[in-house]
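User: My instructor asked us to take a sequence, write out its structure as tokens, and then describe one feature of it. I'm not sure where to start. Here is the sequence I was given:
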Amino acid sequence: MKFTKEMTIREALELDPRSAEIFFNFGMHCIGCPTASGEPIEEAAIAHGIDVDSLIEKLNAL
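Assistant: Let's start with the prediction itself. The structure tokens for your sequence are:
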């Protein structure tokens, strides 16, 4: 399975726990916050001013 913009951070972490390092590298330290369970990666990236396509690319390179 691949990472998508539509999945939540929690789903990404469940898919591959190593994704936490990618989120941290992009300055997204919110992996444990409540919104990580309900907010899509795309919305979280926008809120943090991060290029979501770059983030997804790095996640899928795991």
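For the description part of your assignment, you could build on this observation: The chain is about 50% helix and 0% strand. Try explaining in your own words what that tells you about the chain.
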